[in-house]
Design the sequence.
């Protein structure tokens, strides 16, 4: 393992495998009840109560170009540090495990930085900052007239 | 300790010292020999110099040192020279204020902005408050009481395997009482005096007067009044705006005032008073009042009012027009001899705080702008209404009343609908469609809440009344910020998030 390697959490959405650096995943939690966000399509974003904070849950299909998480039972809680509330929940179909993922250069156009392998399966290595930016942009575009 | 906290502390303390200096300098303007005021100024300059030196902020400590020197000379002379020294001292205070606001954190420590280019925008000061140790102790004691009440409750529910309902109820009541007390104390932590944003205004008004060739005196009434810190902090800019407007466009020059038989010094009064769960702040000047003719002309040329109706506009309507964005542009400055410059910006901020602004003007006698804001941003009374399958909350202060009319009475004209309210047809808006919520099936009776929507009284249709409650309001998560009318978020009794909708920002 090189110095650039980091531990990553691997997960599956819509039949594709992804990973995020473990340090960027605040928590993996069971999917609870999700309510609509007025003015936004429910298929894109909902909101849930996560330990007293309102957590926007953004559909992976809108961010990652995959089919909708068909059997999402868990969400990855992402963003925010320390006392700040987390910024986003990402529903996933299942957790695949921990992987050693290389820290690649950020692809300015896509959300996946590069590829890594886990048990002969290709992982799309994600960047949490880009993922959050992309969520913001996607929600901005979807904003309908209130 | 994280450097950002050092900075926040430095900035906060320096600003407090500067505010105290300004007050003392104004005192010295009235009484140049006031020993007390001189001592306060000297002490504050000395403290700032010490703090800035400790943080290696050389320009600030040098500036504070220069102030200290001047004040030392004044001390020796037994008075401040109001012509030679006072303006220089006020300028020095402004200079330190500017330098302080331009200070940013870097890994190497604190740097004035000019030495840390590009960092200004990236730097977001953390929201921090200073809390007295005993306040924290009281909060902790409250937490201890909750823990105690909880164990009593556990005992009451498990004693000998037999629950005692009366003890459980008593335990729950006790818990509610302690939680209520904790909530009150936590809210007190958020309270800040209005003075925090108004104390610099007398100095500012004075400086503005000098720059405009006018004499301006600003007095504060009720400024020690406390309200939610997040509201106080956002009141700074609107109040500054109103004072600038009053000084620049409301008050006349000394010569004009003399001609009109008024005192040469124009007066601006900022009066704050508590009214139930709100604070009303009035900015009152004794200037010329609104120039109604200029507003009429501008409104006609902007296409806001038909020319043939302009002359018949009642004073209230003229005042409303003054808040219209179309009339609040820079180009309006010269035409609107009264005011109207940026009033829409003031209104936007105040409404985003759940408050409202109105204006009363008497030609030749002055203008009063009344700002009303809730005491607390954190706790608000809301009406919960069902729209389709969803529940939303509307701040109660935004709702005129709730009404019910027969569905048959709804009149439709093209895409518009009207309902008869108080004998008059009122535009009807569907909350479901405005909020992109799937509507409930039509019913024989239509429930509406009457509210001001973008400055117009309207009826907003909803599907069921859930109730009203006092609720702790959180900000909308960053990812969802900027979604028009969604102005906050709370949790329903089922623990699920409920959005707060501000009718004024709908449509």
Sequence:
């Amino acid at each position: 393992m090189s110095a650039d390697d980091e531990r990553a959490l691997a997960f599956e959405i819509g039949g594709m495998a992804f990973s995020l650096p473990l340090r960027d995943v605040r928590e993996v939690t069971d999917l609870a009840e999700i309510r609509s966000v007025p003015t936004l399509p429910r298929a894109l974003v909902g909101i849930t109560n996560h330990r007293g904070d309102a957590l926007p849950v953004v559909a992976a299909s809108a961010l990652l170009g995959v089919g909708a998480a068909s059997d999402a039972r868990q969400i990855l809680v992402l963003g925010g540090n320390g006392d700040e509330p987390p910024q986003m929940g990402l529903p996933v179909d299942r957790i695949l495990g921990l992987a050693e993922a290389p820290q690649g250069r950020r692809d300015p156009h896509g959300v996946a930085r590069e590829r890594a392998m886990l048990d002969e399966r290709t992982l799309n290595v994600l960047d949490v900052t880009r993922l959050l930016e992309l969520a913001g942009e996607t929600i901005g575009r979807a904003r309908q007239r209130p | 300790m994280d450097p950002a906290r050092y900075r926040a502390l430095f900035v906060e303390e320096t600003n407090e010292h500067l505010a105290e200096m300004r007050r003392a300098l104004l005192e010295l303007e009235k009484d140049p020999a006031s020993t007390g005021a001189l001592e306060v100024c000297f002490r504050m300059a000395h403290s700032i110099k010490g703090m800035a030196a400790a943080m290696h902020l050389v320009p600030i400590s040098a500036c504070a040192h220069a102030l200290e020197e001047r004040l030392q000379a004044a001390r020796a002379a037994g008075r401040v020279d109001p012509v030679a020294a006072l303006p220089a001292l006020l300028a020095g205070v402004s200079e330190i204020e500017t330098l302080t606001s331009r200070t940013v954190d870097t890994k190497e420590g604190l740097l004035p902005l000019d030495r840390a280019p590009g960092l200004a925008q990236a730097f977001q000061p953390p929201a921090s408050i200073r809390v007295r140790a005993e306040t924290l102790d009281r909060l902790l004691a409250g937490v201890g009481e909750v823990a105690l009440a909880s164990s009593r409750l556990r005992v009451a529910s498990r004693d000998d395997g037999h629950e005692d309902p009366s003890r459980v109820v008593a335990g729950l009541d006790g818990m509610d009482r302690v939680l209520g007390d904790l909530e009150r104390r936590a809210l007190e932590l958020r309270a800040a005096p209005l003075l925090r944003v108004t104390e610099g205004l007398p100095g500012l008004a004075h400086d503005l007067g000098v720059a405009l060739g006018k004499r301006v005196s600003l007095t504060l009434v009720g400024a020690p009044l406390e309200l939610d810190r997040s509201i106080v902090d956002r009141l700074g800019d609107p109040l500054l705006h109103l004072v600038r407007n009053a000084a620049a466009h409301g008050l006349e020059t000394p010569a004009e005032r003399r001609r009109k038989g008024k005192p040469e010094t124009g007066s601006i009064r900022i009066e704050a008073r508590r009214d139930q769960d709100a604070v009303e702040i009035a900015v009152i000047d004794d200037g010329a009042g609104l120039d109604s003719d200029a507003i009429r002309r501008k409104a006609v040329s902007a296409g806001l009012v038909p020319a043939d109706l302009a002359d018949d506009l009642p004073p209230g309507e003229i005042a409303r027009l003054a808040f219209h964005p179309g009339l609040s542009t820079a180009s309006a400055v010269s035409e609107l001899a009264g005011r109207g410059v940026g009033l829409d910006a003031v209104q936007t901020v105040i409404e985003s705080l759940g408050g409202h602004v109105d204006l009363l003007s008497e030609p030749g006698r002055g203008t009063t702008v009344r700002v009303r804001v809730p005491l607390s941003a954190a706790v608000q009374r809301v009406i919960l209404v069902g729209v389709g399958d969803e529940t939303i909350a509307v701040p109660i202060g935004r709702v005129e009343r709730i009404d019910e009319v027969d569905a048959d009475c709804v009149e439709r004209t093209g895409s518009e609908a009207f309902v008869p309210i108080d004998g008059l047809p009122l535009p009807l808006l569907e909350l479901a469609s405005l909020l992109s919520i799937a509507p409930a099936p039509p019913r024989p009776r239509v429930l509406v809440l009457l509210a001001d929507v973008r400055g117009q009284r309207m009826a907003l249709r909803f599907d069921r009344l859930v109730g009203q409650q006092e609720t702790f309001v959180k900000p909308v998560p960053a990812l969802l910020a900027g979604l028009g009318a969604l102005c906050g978020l709370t949790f329903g009794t089922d623990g699920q998030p409920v959005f707060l909708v501000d009718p004024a920002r709908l449509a």
